[in-house]
Amino acid sequence: MTLLIKLCTSMTALMMNHIFSPHIMISYQRDVQPQVLQIRDALKAAGYRIWIDVENMHTSLSIVDSMIKAVDNAAVVIPVLTAKYQTSANCRKELEYADKQGKPIVPIRLQRDYIPKEWLSFVLGNNFWHDLYQDPLYSSKLEAFLEVVHAHASSAKI
């Protein structure tokens, strides 16, 4: 039983360390999770520490507290733009909080014809989004996106 308690304590410490370490945070609406996980994999392969809800939402914190900690410790926030992202209350809270904290925002667009409107257009301001929907140019677009992330993340040890 003591070994189990030590293991659980160690795992909790690792999770908390990940939440409180500099990382890249991916903010997305669940409908595009398979594509987001591919982008996460590309970022991890490039050597970045990634915060994504399905791996890092800590159960000892509320959803809001977990999102706040994730944003506070993010070197870069990557919102994944879709029509459903724009209508998600949690996505809006995350991105507005990230903007308020002055976090670099590097948006990805996964819907070819989607144009951000209203609050999302306002928060994004002049941020250029990277089109990462699947097409013949996906690899070169992903490479360009990774270069921009690297430029923003180079000052943080992630």
UniProtKB/TrEMBL annotation:
One Pfam assignment: TIR_2
Any GO BP annotation: signal transduction
Domain TIR positions: 20-136
Protein name: TIR domain-containing protein
